[in-house]
Design goal:
Layout lengths: L15 H27 L1 H7 L4 H27 L6 H20 L5 H17 L1 H13 L6 H26 L2 H19 L11 H4 L10 H7 L1 H22 L1 H7 L4 H13 L1 H6 L1 H4 L5 H20 L4 H9 L5 H15 L5 H30 L1 H25 L8
Helix pairs in contact: 1-7, 1-8, 3-5, 3-19, 4-5, 4-6, 4-8, 6-19, 7-13, 10-11, 11-16, 11-19, 11-20, 13-17, 16-17, 16-18, 16-20, 18-19, 19-20
C-alpha cells in the first residue's frame, strides 16, 4: 500500500515558505481551469443557442460530449498510469493547448454548425477529461515532497468559478457571446504557461521524463481494479445517483427558479452562492480529515446531496432555493476533496489516476442520465415530479454508498 498523502497541516514550519509557493502555483492552475469551466460548461447553452443551435441540438451535442468524456477518462488514465512519455503534467498541457486551438477556431466560425458542433464538443469533452488528472498531479507532487495544500487550492478554484459566474452574464449582454472565446483564449494561454513551468525540483526527482507520475507496477485492468477495490467500485454506482440529482438541479435551475418566481438575476445569485460556499470546506479539508475519515465524509456528502434536492420538492419561494444551495457546503464541497483523498490513501500508486478518472466518469454519467431523463419528465409532468424522481434516485445512491463503504473492504486482501 502506498504511503499516505502528506497533509499540508503537518508540514514543518521550515517548509511554510515552500508550501505557500507550491500551493500558490497549483491554485493558479485550478483558478484558470475553473474560470474556463464557467465559460465553456456553464455557458455552453448560451454559446450554442447564440450560434443558431436549437435546444434539441444543444442537448445532443452535450450528451455526446459527456458520453465521450466518460469513456475517454479511464482510457487516458490507464495510459498515464503506465510507464511512458505521457505524464500527468504533459497530458494537462496538451489538453490546454487543444482547448486554446479550439477556441481560436470557434472565433472564426460564427454560426457555422458544421465546424462548431465537433470543435465545441471536443473542447467540452477534453476539459472534463483532464480534471481528474489535475487532482492526480497534486497528489503525485505531494508524494514527491512538494507541500501543496490541496483543499485550499481546490476551494480557490471554486471561488474562481464563482467570481467568473458573477461577471460573465453582464459581459455577454454588453459584448455578445464572442467574449466567451476571448476569455477562453486568454485563460488558456495563462494556464499553458503555468503548467509548462510547473515542474518538480531536481532534488525531488531526477528525470522528469522517466519518473513523473509513474510507478513500476503495471496499471490494473478494469476487472482487476474492481476486484482490488470492492468498496470504491460499488460506491461509484452511488456517485452516479448523487450526480443525477446534482445535475438535475444545475441543468434545470432556471426552470426551478422561474417556478419559484425568480429569474436570471436570481439564477446568478444561486450559482454564486453554491460556488463560494465550497471554498471554506475545501480549504479546511485537511483539518477535517484528522477528525473524520474520507470514507465517512463521502457518506456525509451523499446525505447532503439528498437533503439538497429534497428541500426543493417542498420549496415555495426563493428563500427555500437559497437554503437548498447552502447544502452545497456539505455536498459537492465535501465530496470532491474527500473522493480525492480516499483514492490517494486507499489505492496503489499505479491505480490512482484511474481511480480519480472513474470518479469523474461517474459524475459525467450521472449528468448524462439526468439530461436525458429530467427534460422528458419536466416537459410532460412538471417541476415537482422531476424533483421527486431525482430525490428517489439520490436516496438509492445513499443506500448503496452506506453498504459499499461500511460493509465492504476498501482493498481486497492479498492471498
Amino acid at each position: 500500500m502506498p504511503s499516505e498523502t502528506p497533509s499540508p497541516e503537518s508540514t514543518p514550519k521550515t517548509t511554510k515558505g515552500r508550501s505557500f509557493l507550491w500551493t500558490l502555483r497549483y491554485t493558479l492552475i485550478n483558478a484558470t481551469y475553473f474560470s474556463a469551466f464557467c465559460t465553456i460548461h456553464a455557458c455552453a447553452a448560451v454559446f450554442l443557442l447564440g450560434n443558431g443551435f436549437s435546444n434539441t441540438e444543444v442537448g445532443v451535442l452535450l450528451a455526446i460530449a459527456n458520453i465521450l468524456s466518460a469513456i475517454v477518462q479511464p482510457v487516458i488514465a490507464g495510459i498515464i498510469d503506465k510507464q511512458g512519455a505521457l505524464t500527468n503534467r504533459r497530458f494537462i498541457l496538451i489538453s490546454v493547448l487543444v482547448i486554446l486551438a479550439g477556441s481560436v477556431v470557434l472565433l472564426f466560425s460564427t454560426n457555422n454548425k458544421l465546424v462548431i458542433f465537433p470543435v465545441f464538443a471536443l473542447i467540452y469533452m477534453i476539459q472534463f477529461a483532464y480534471q481528474p488528472v489535475m487532482t492526480a498531479l497534486c497528489f503525485e507532487y505531494q508524494k514527491a515532497g512538494a507541500p501543496i495544500f490541496y483543499g485550499l487550492a481546490r476551494g480557490l478554484g471554486s471561488a474562481s468559478f464563482a467570481i467568473t459566474s458573477a461577471f460573465i452574464g453582464g459581459l455577454i449582454e454588453s459584448n455578445g457571446i464572442r467574449i466567451l472565446l476571448y476569455i477562453n483564449i486568454v485563460v488558456m494561454v495563462l494556464s499553458a504557461i503555468l503548467i509548462f513551468t510547473f515542474r518538480k525540483p531536481k532534488n525531488m526527482v531526477a528525470d522528469d521524463v522517466s519518473s513523473e507520475g509513474k510507478s513500476t507496477a503495471p496499471s490494473s485492468s478494469l476487472r482487476t481494479f474492481i476486484r482490488s477495490y470492492p468498496a470504491f467500485s460499488l460506491f461509484l454506482i452511488g456517485v452516479i445517483c448523487f450526480f443525477f440529482a446534482h445535475n438535475m438541479i444545475n441543468d434545470f435551475m432556471i426552470q426551478i427558479i422561474r417556478n419559484l418566481g425568480g429569474g436570471e438575476k436570481e439564477l446568478g445569485y444561486a450559482n454564486f452562492l453554491q460556488a463560494i460556499l465550497e471554498l471554506p470546506v475545501m480549504a479546511l479539508i485537511g483539518l477535517i480529515l484528522k477528525k473524520i475519515t474520507a470514507g465517512n465524509l463521502l457518506l456525509l456528502s451523499g446525505v447532503a446531496f439528498l437533503v439538497k434536492i429534497a428541500i426543493l420538492i417542498f420549496a415555495s419561494n426563493m428563500g427555500h432555493m437559497y437554503l437548498s444551495q447552502c447544502c452545497q457546503l456539505l455536498a459537492y464541497a465535501v465530496f470532491i476533496p474527500a473522493a480525492a483523498y480516499y483514492v490517494s490513501k486507499t489505492m496503489a500508486d499505479h491505480d490512482q489516476v484511474k481511480g480519480q478518472a472513474f470518479v469523474t466518469s461517474c459524475i459525467t454519467i450521472g449528468g448524462v442520465f439526468s439530461n436525458l431523463i429530467s427534460g422528458v419528465i419536466l416537459d410532460n409532468f412538471g417541476i415537482r415530479p422531476m424533483l421527486v424522481t431525482g430525490t428517489i434516485v439520490c436516496a438509492l445512491g445513499v443506500a448503496i454508498g452506506f453498504f459499499a463503504l461500511l460493509k465492504l473492504p476498501a482493498k481486497r486482501k492479498e492471498s
